[in-house]
Write a structure and sequence with these properties.
This protein has 295 residues and is α/β, with parallel strands linked by helices. Helices cover 33% and strands 23% of the residues. It contains 8 helices and 9 strands. The chain has helices at 2-19, 102-113, 134-164, 184-194, 199-202, 228-231, 271-278, 286-293, and strands at residues 32-45, 56-67, 75-81, 117-121, 172-181, 214-215, 223-224, 245-252, 255-261. The strands form 3 sheets. It has a 5-stranded mixed β-sheet with strand order 1-2-4-3-5. The protein has a two-stranded antiparallel ribbon with strand order 6-7. The radius of gyration is 24 Å and the shape is globular. It starts with a helix and ends with a helix. Mean pLDDT is 81; it is low at 8-18 and 241-295.
Length: 295
């Protein structure tokens, strides 16, 4: 009899253990609540320029997924960034390229059912895959990825500000933030997690130029593909509207000449200065110019 009772007890414990679910590992909620089109920032988009119009400010939007009925606060936050080759759906040759893609919706829903707060984020798109040379296409693609990095960090900053100044409406722990990237979104999340400052983009750990991120505009010089004084810093917190910057055009990989130029105005862009900023204008930052000029 004792053996029978002991066996029944073990069986009950096994069933209870099998049925036990762990938050953040298992789907412990049945439903999720989605808040769509939350604006997490604004910045300049180049998409209109591809249609012959001036670039314009774009609202950066996300859909926020939360477990329905959850009373927990200080929840981990996950941000998802979609694929799409940095172009809108169908213009990129496929049906994907937004925060509403099936993969993003499915993953956001699954993680929210596990107890996370999840944001599926749109980010700025735009580059010209039909540009005349491979060097031009590479230049524009790198700049598109850089804008994605800026937007991903803007999204993180939006949530942290909501905790510090907005009463924590999403119930998150601002120190527990993860980034998930699908396809080209993976380039954004990897770069966002590893770039500490602008120089990480164009210089290696020894201070030497990372040559694949420099290009020759056709006159034998070398110019960075991303220029902080024109494109902003990786966090998208600098305003390039005012003043002048000293920039460097490299006459070879190890010699250079400094110039002073006025960058484009961020708030009132025109097609002319956008194209100038994206082609062979004199660009880089004062710090980078001094680094190279000392060689």
């Amino acid at each position: 009899m004792k053996r029978l009772l002991f066996g029944a007890l073990l069986a009950c414990m096994f069933v209870l253990q099998a049925d036990a679910q762990t938050r953040y590992l298992d789907e412990v909620f049945d439903e999720v609540t989605v808040t769509t089109d939350v604006v997490y920032g604004q910045n300049i988009t180049v998409i209109p320029a591809l249609q012959g119009m001036p670039p314009a400010m774009e609202d950066l939007k996300m859909d926020v997924y939360e477990p329905t009925g959850d009373t927990e606060m200080d929840r981990p936050l996950l941000l998802i960034f979609h694929t799409g080759n940095f172009l809108p759906a169908y213009l990129n040759g496929g049906p994907l390229g937004s925060k509403s893609d099936n993969w993003e919706v499915e993953m956001a829903t699954r993680y929210a059912k596990m107890g996370y707060v999840v944001a599926s984020c749109d980010y700025r798109l735009g580059w010209n895959p039909l540009a005349g040379t491979q060097e031009e296409r590479t230049l524009q693609l790198i700049q598109a990825a850089y804008r994605g990095v800026q937007d991903s960090r803007t999204a993180v900053r939006f949530f942290r500000k909501s905790v510090e100044e907005g009463g924590d409406p999403f119930g998150i722990d601002s120190e527990k933030v993860g980034l998930i990237g699908n396809g080209t979104g993976g380039y954004i999340t990897l770069a966002s997690a590893t770039i500490e400052n602008y120089n990480d983009i164009i210089l290696d750990d020894t201070g030497s130029p990372i040559t694949k991120f420099w290009y020759n505009p056709g006159d034998g010089s070398y110019i960075p593909m991303v220029i902080e004084g024109i494109h902003g810093n990786p966090d998208a917190t600098t305003d390039t509207s005012f003043g002048t910057i000293q920039v460097m055009v490299r006459t070879s990989l190890w010699s250079s000449k400094a110039y002073t130029v006025t960058p484009m105005r961020r708030r009132t862009p025109t097609l002319q200065n956008l194209l100038a900023a994206s082609s062979c204008a004199l660009r880089t930052t004062l710090d980078t110019a001094r680094t190279f000029h000392s060689r």
